[in-house]
Every structure is written in structure tokens, then in C-alpha cells.
Amino acid sequence: MDRKIAWEEYSVKQEKELETLSAEYIDFISKCKTERECIDHIVEAAEAAGFKELEELVKNKTTVKTGDRIYSVWMNKSIALFEIGSRPLEEGMNILGAHIDSPRLDVKQNPLYEDGGFAYLDTHYYGGIKKYQWVTLPLALHGVIVKKDGTTVLVNVGENEEDPVFFVSDLLIHLASEQLEKKGNKVIEGEALDIIIGNKPLVLKKTAKVNEEAKKKKDKVKSNILEILKKLYDVSEEDFVSAELEVVPAGKAREAGFDRSMILGYGHDDRVCAFPSYKAVTASGGFEKTACCILVDKEEIGSVGATGMKSRFFEYMVAQIVELMGDYSELKLKRILANSCMLSSDVSAGFDPIYAAQFEKKNACYLGKGVVFNKYTGSRGKSGSNDANAEYIAYLRNIMDESKVYYQTAELGKVDAGGGGTIAYIMALYGMNVIDSGIPVLNMHAPWECVSKADIYEAFRCYKAFLKGSGI
């Protein structure tokens, strides 16, 4: 069963809408390279669209009613958006879920050292990466440093043209014969992914007293970096202990191809799904069933921790809304969650003809053919997957066809080739209907990933149509 290429069917109006949405997405993904940056951007957009903070409503004991738009941020790394529908909340919600963390390098808590005349920051990679892809690239440093007095210092270096960038070095080809004999996962070791941040020693004024101090001083390049950090951010070496600094590819996302049909950028997995998800909730309105968009942290490392989907923060948010509606009970909360429907929006592996042997063509997804539904993910014998039921898929097919959304179905490569997971199975624990739905990606988990503009547009149309659905 072959699916149409969306580009061939678009009207002039639709192409214009597509380009407008793509330009906004490029701006989003270029500026929002960490979870915290995504949250700041989405909160600003939500408040502009009339959403009120849940914590303020709770504090003021404000009654929640149909049409109210509410958001709640969890530890600056996860967020949920709600619009209360006209039907009783007990009938469930239509939920869009995605994650906003992406593979990267994280700076360790005791990171700064000097060796061979270079100053380094020691890193620990986050999520599944091919380590050799991260060498010799211009890298940027994003994040926060929190001082003991509670002051938060924002760090964002490497994105502006006048900023310096950082990099991981690699062995020159002339001396790499032994290196090139290693397996791909050993060509670059994790402990070799330290970024170079300086090469200039601290130079003190030429006085007799200072010269004596300079002779005694070790690690002068490191000392110079500490002087710069003190000047720029008023932080000390000890402040790295309470810092969250992420090393990401430097530079903006770009249109790709002579036809400008694709977007090359960092973090498509999974911000390319998070973007149309929050846009669908904020741009639409007047829902029958309560609409919800939840964007979470830590998916790339198993959805663990207080800001991951395995945490109970989402259940806590819904419980607070139910209480503000004046009729809370634990049984009612469970009914709401069990009666909900969800699109777990995560990216899928786009078919790559260069590596065709790892795909099964009939059940692969293709760039430009629209949003993707993965009935199941997991690995090999569907291990660790959520396997959506046929009734729910039929319900979604009807919505997509009525709204003329271009969609396709897929698996994540050949059965024995590998696999992957999403947050779908976690939300399914509540008993709700869940299916994976997202966008095809080339170069998944690489520093620069590729998606089709058409698929972003179709995902946005899909998510809007889904939120209008009556449920199953």
C-alpha cells in the first residue's frame, strides 16, 4: 500500500502555510537547544495565547471551568498545557505528548582541567549517540550555573557570530592507522569527548612580586579560564558543582536541498514533534474533550527522574485541576486518565536509500509522505513497546481521512535490526488508548538531523484534528 507524497497535492495556500510554519519552527529549534530554553519559549507562547499558571490558580483557589486555558511547569524542564473542554472531564482528555530533551554532551560536576597547554571541560554523553560524530564540530555551551545563594546564571555561548565556539579534537589521519582498525563504538571513547575551551595562559603584570607568584602558579591556562568566568559570570570553580551545562552543536537550523524542502538542525528528536504539539493546543480552541499537551524531559535516558514521564507529576497536575473544578476523588482521577486518548509524538526512522538494508520498505516511513503512526516500537519481539489496539487505530484513521491529513504507518527498521522506545508505554499504564505518532527523521541522534517541511505541516494538521476528536 503506497502513500501519496504530500507535496504533490498541496494548494498554493497550503504551501504558504507550510512555509510560514517551517520558518517559525526553524527559529524555535535554533533558539531552544535545551529543555529549559524550550520551557521558557513555550511559556511565553502559552501566556500570549491566554493560558494561566496552574500554581497561581491553586494559590488563589480559582474555580476552573469550560474554556479555561492552563499551564503548569515542572522543575523548569517539563510542562503541560490544558484547555478545559465542554464535556465532563471524567470522559477523558485528548493528549499530545512529546519530549524536549535530545542527545548531547553534559558537563561533569568537576569538569575543568588543564593538560598539554589546553583547558578542557570533562563531559559525560547523554542519550544514545555515535561518539565519533561529535568530534571536530563547532560546539556551543548552554545551561545554568546556580550559586550557593540561589542566584541562577544563564550560560549561552557559541550561537552568535561574535561568540567563540568549542570543540572535541580528533587524531590526524596521518597517525590514525591503529584508530581506524577499531570498531565504530570504540573509535572515540566516551572519556575522550572532553571539549577544548582555551589555550592561552594567564599573564600577570610584570612586577617582581607578581613574577614570583607566577612562577609558583600551575595550570595557567585553566587559571586564565577561571579569570574569564569570574569576569563574565561572577562564578568560581566550585560553582560547577551546582551547574547544568549542555554541550550542543553550534549554529542555526538551515533549510536543506536546492528545493528547500527539508530542514537540517540539532534536536529534531523530539522537538520536531513538541513544536507542532504545543502549537496545536495554543492555536486551536473550543474543544469538546479537554485538550492537553505534555512535553517532558529525560526520555532519551529512559524517562527517569523527577522530570521524566515515569514521575507522577502529570497525575499531580490533573488532580489539582480536578480539585479546582470542585469535585475531586481518586476514582474520578483514575477514570479521567483511563478514558483519555493519546498521541505519543516521537520521531520515526525515515527510510534512507543509502542504508536500505536496515529497513523493510513496505513498513518504513518516508520523508514527505506525512505524519507517521507506529503501532508499536520496542526492539525485536516488540520488547518494551506499547502496542496500540486495532479499534483505536481505526478511530484515528477516520479522523485523518475526514481532515485530509497525509499519514503513513511504519516500524523502526527491520525486526532484528534494533529498535527504540518512547513515553507511550508509560502513559498506557493508566489504561488509556495510546499510539506513537511523529515525523520521519534522517540522521536520528546525530548532531545534525534532517526532516521534511511537509511532514511538520502534516503533523500540525494531524494534532489539531486529533484534539477535536470525540474519543473512543
Helix content: 25-40%
Structural class: alpha/beta
Mean pLDDT: 94
Taking the sheet with the most strands, its summary is: 9 strands, mixed
Distance between the termini: 26 Å
Strand content: 15-25%
Strand tally is 22
Low-confidence stretches: none
Here the CATH topology of the largest domain equals Aminopeptidase
User: DSSP helix count?
Assistant: 11
The CATH architecture of the largest domain can be named as 3-Layer(aba) Sandwich
Neighbour order of strands in the largest sheet: 1-2-3-13-4-14-20-16-18
Give the name of the CATH superfamily of the largest domain. Answer: Zn peptidases
CATH class categorisation of the largest domain: Alpha Beta
Computed CA radius of gyration, to the nearest angstrom: 24 Å
The tally of structural domains comes to 2
Q: What spatial form do the alpha-carbon principal axes imply?
A: globular
Question: What attributes characterize this protein structure?
Answer:
9-stranded mixed sheet; 6-stranded antiparallel sheet; Aminopeptidase; 472 residues; 11 helices; alpha/beta
Description:
By secondary structure, this protein is of the alpha/beta class. It folds into two domains: 6-102 and 266-467, 3-Layer(aba) Sandwich (Aminopeptidase), CATH 3.40.630; 104-249, Roll (Aminopeptidase i, Domain 2). Helices cover 28% and strands 23% of the residues. The chain has a nine-stranded mixed sheet, sandwiched between helices. Helix 1 (12-31) packs across helix 11 and helix 6 packs across helix 11 (453-467). The longest helix has 20 residues, at 12-31. The radius of gyration is 24 Å and the shape is globular. The two termini are 26 Å apart. The model has no long low-confidence stretch (mean pLDDT 94).
